[in-house]
Amino acid sequence: MSDQVTEASRRIVTEFSRRVAAGDPSAFDDLVAQDFVNHAAGPQGRNGWRATFDHLRHDLGDFTTEEHRLLADGDEVAVHLTIRGRHVASTMPLLIGVPITGAEVEWTFLHRFRIKDGRIAEHWACRDDVGLLRQLGAWPPT
């Protein structure tokens, strides 16, 4: 694919990440396709993905993201990033039953996106859930 397609795909994912980390709810309507497919666990569709980020913001407060590496090739983009926040609630499915610690935590992700017509059309993810749970004293399970 052309360098223009690659650069446009890179910009869309970078803008989405920046806006979501800033708490901008319009990022989903502006940058995620209406028929979005989430191949990762969790709620499906654009509104389901929005709900996932709502839980994340609720449980980890005003989190920040650090992008370690972004690779783009045509309409596909891969991102390695870390989310940092404070554990202030346990409402997302992974954290249900975990006592609130107030601890500063880091959660590492690998994301893969496919862009179509200027929007994120598909998403895959690999998360270091065990690493997050260890920081909260919830791993290994008792």
From TrEMBL:
Q: Gene3D superfamilies, alphabetically? A: 3.10.450.50
Taxonomic path: Bacteria, Bacillati, Actinomycetota, Actinomycetes, Geodermatophilales
The protein's superkingdom reads Bacteria
Which species is this record about?
A: Geodermatophilus africanus
- Per the UniProt entry, what are the Gene Ontology biological process annotations, in alphabetical order? polyketide metabolic process
Which InterPro entries does the annotation name? Cyclase_SnoaL-like (IPR009959), NTF2-like_dom_sf (IPR032710)
List the protein's name.
Answer: Predicted ester cyclase
Q: Which residues form a coiled coil?
A: none
